[in-house]
Amino acid sequence: MWIIQFVNTAVILIIINNSVVNDSAIDKATTATGTSGFLFHGSYPDFNSSWYEVIGITLFTNAFITGVSAASPISAWFIGCFKRCCDRSCTCDEKKTNKILQEDYEAVYSGSLIEYDMRLSVTIAIIWVIMMFAAAIPVLYLAGFVLCFVTYWTDKCLFLKFYKIPPKHGSDLISKARSVIEWSLVLHLFMGLYMISMPDIFIDEKEEN
Description:
The protein has 209 residues and is an all-alpha fold. It has helices spanning 2-17, 25-33, 49-69, 74-87, 102-109, 116-133, 140-161, 172-182, 184-196, 205-208. It has two domains: 1-16 and 47-71 and 116-201, no CATH class; 74-113, no CATH class.
């Protein structure tokens, strides 16, 4: 799941908006497959200053919005509180209920299960996006901080106030997620070396004029 999100967030942006040198290996491959009209046929031949002004801002905006939206499960908590209030006829008596069947009562008062797969896949995908471009776009580290901070405190509060007791997974799931994130350091290294080595990103206004 995280691979699909990573490709959709970062890789497709490069494929659509960047272009390649004529007669290069990628150009020959896209021509042979008939995809040269939309793959690597964008307006940016490299990671120049114009690329950062448009695509770089788009990447940061997407990463920052994803970090803030990590708090969206709180809305389910508020909806659950509203349903419980309606069930008690808006009184403070927690023993009062309009439900007759046990399963109906539990559906209102027991909350929901945390979606481990969705939470981890989003976190891993955005961290990979951040590590891919953060060497040349350091503000992405801020988006990563927002993502981790909001995810941690949202899940912690909901574990105490809303979520059901989750099934026991042990440490295997988190260990696998951590090992996947660690591999993003390799991508961070190579993409950072390539992007920072582009001399066009250091062009100032005098040189442009």
